[in-house]
Amino acid sequence: MTDYLQEQYRASHLSGGNAAYVEELYEQWLDDPFAVPEHWQQVFSRLGAEAGDDTRHLAIAESFRGLKPAGAAAEDYKQAGVLRMINAYRVRGHKRAHLDPLGLSERPQVPDLELSFHSLSESDLRTSFHTGSLAAPDHLPLAEIIDICQKTYCGSIGVEYMHIGDTEQRQWLQRRLEGTRGNYTPPKEDRLRLLEKLTAAEGMEKYLHSKYVGQKRFSLEGGESMIPLFDALIRHTGSQGVREMVIGMAHRGRLNVLVNVLGKRPGDLFAEFEGVIAKDDPTRSGDVKYHMGFSSDVRTPGGVVHLALAFNPSHLEIVNPVVAGSARARQSRLGDHEHEQVMPVLVHGDAAIAGQGVVMELLNMSQARGFAVGGTFHIVVNNQVGFTTSNPLDARSTLYCTEVAKMVQAPILHVNGDDPEAVIYATLLAADFRREFKKDVVIDLVCYRRHGHNEADEPAATQPRMYQVIRKLDPVRKKYADRLMADGLIDKSKVEALQSEYRDKLDAGEPVVDLVPDEEALVTVDWQPYLDREWRQDVATGMSLDSIRSLSEQMTTIPEGFGLHKQVERIIESRQKMAAGEQPLDWGFAETMAYAGLITDGHGLRLVGQDSGRGTFFHRHAVLHNQNDGSNRVPLAELADDPKKVTIIDSLLSEEAVLGFEYGYATADPGTLVIWEAQFGDFVNGAQVVIDQFIASGEAKWGRLCGLVMFLPHGYEGQGPEHSSARLERFMQLCSGNNIQVCVPSLPSQMFHMLRRQMLRPFRKPLIVLTPKSLLRHKASTSSLSDLVDGQFQLVIDDPAKPEPSKTKRVVFCAGKVYFDLASERDEQGIDDIALVRVEQLYPFPREEVQAIVERYGKAEEVIWCQEEPMNQGAWFQIRHHLQACTGGKSLKYVGREGSSSPAVGYYQVHLEQQKKLVSQALTHGEGLA
Question: What residues make up the domain containing 134?
Answer without folding.
Answer: 3-177
